[in-house]
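Researcher: Sequence recovery benchmark, item below. Answer with residues only.
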């Protein structure tokens, strides 16, 4: 079996499914971008996917961003960071070409980012990550505090909020996952209504291999898809979300 042909085929299937979900939801497929979640995927495979016309990738671990950075330099793409943000590693993300951090979930993290950006004389786009399920995860801000924290972040002149991100509940039953996406949409509307200078709320990053069609129905503009493109990973989710699920 040719792994590379599988990747191309899987991408075609995903694009078809995104399009079909948009049509069902009465949305323009142009509104929904595919981010390829490339954790554990080697640069040669990532290049195949990029060269098939998919420019947006996201890594979950800073270490992997660093390891793959040079190998991907000759293949134009856009790089987001989608994993838990450890403030002592921010400098590596800035250095390795990440243009948007999707996982800022506190004012403290945004302040640390601002400090480093001042040092490097750079700027960075971010999404504010919201916790939308009751799972025992530490990551993501309390939806009730979102407007206030985003208001604080708006004071940081090098950090530019472009939207929101969430990881939905891990459940095969979509009607249990859907409220997470509805909640993110609601928080987006609250922030829009607060009319905070400098804050943009056009992007909602939500939906993964198991639930992206539901996320699209609820207004997602970026779906983050890994295993449905590159195949199952060896690591369990726990590796990527420590102190979190099985
Ligand atoms: C790995 C990952 C994804 C994609 O997960 P799949 O289930 O493989 O599609 C999406 N978002 C984040 C934050 C991830 O770490």
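Model:
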């Amino acid at each position: 079996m040719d792994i590379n042909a599988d990747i191309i085929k899987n991408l075609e299937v995903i694009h078809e499914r995104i399009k079909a979900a948009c049509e069902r939801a009465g949305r323009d497929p142009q509104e929904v971008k595919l981010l390829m979640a490339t954790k554990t995927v080697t640069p040669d495979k990532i290049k195949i996917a990029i060269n098939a016309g998919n420019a947006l990738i996201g890594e979950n671990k800073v270490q992997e961003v660093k390891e793959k950075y040079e190998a991907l330099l000759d293949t134009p793409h856009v790089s987001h960071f989608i994993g838990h943000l450890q403030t002592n590693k921010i400098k590596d993300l800035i250095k390795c070409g990440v243009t948007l951090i999707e996982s800022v979930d506190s004012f403290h993290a945004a302040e640390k980012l601002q400090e480093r950006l001042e040092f490097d004389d750079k700027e960075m786009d971010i999404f504010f990550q919201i916790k939308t399920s009751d799972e025992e995860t530490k990551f993501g801000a309390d939806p009730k505090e979102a407007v206030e924290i985003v208001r604080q972040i708006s004071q940081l002149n090098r950090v530019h909020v472009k939207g929101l991100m969430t990881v939905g509940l891990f459940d095969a039953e979509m009607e249990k996952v859907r409220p997470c996406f509805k909640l993110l949409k609601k928080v987006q509307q609250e922030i829009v209504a607060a009319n905070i200078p400098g804050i943009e709320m056009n992007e909602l990053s939500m939906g993964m291999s198991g639930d992206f069609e539901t996320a699209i129905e609820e207004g997602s503009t970026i779906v983050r898809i890994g295993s449905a493109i590159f195949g199952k990973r060896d690591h369990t989710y726990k590796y990527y979300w420590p102190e979190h699920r099985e």
